[in-house]
Amino acid sequence: MRIALWIGLAGCFTCFAAPVEVERQAEYLRIILQQADEAYFNKYDSIMSDVAYDALQSRYAAMKAAYPDLLDIAAVGSPVGDDKLLHSKPVLSLKKAYSDDEVVAFVKKSGAERFRVEPKLDGLTVVLSYQNGVLTRALTRGDGDAGSDVTAAILASGCAPAVLNNGKPATLEIRGEVYMPFAQFAALNERRVREGLDPLKSPRNTAAGSLRLDDFAEIERRGLELAVFELRESDLMPATRTDMMLFLEELGFSVVAGETVDAPNVLSAVERINRQRASAPFLTDGVVIKVDDLSVFAAQGSTARYPRGALARKYKTIPEETTLLNVEWQRAESGRLTPVAHFEPVRVSGAIIQRATLHNLNHLRALDLRIGDRILVTRAGGSVPEIIGVVPNQRTGDEIPIASP
Ligand code: IVH
Question: How many structural domains does the chain have?
Answer without folding.
Answer: 2
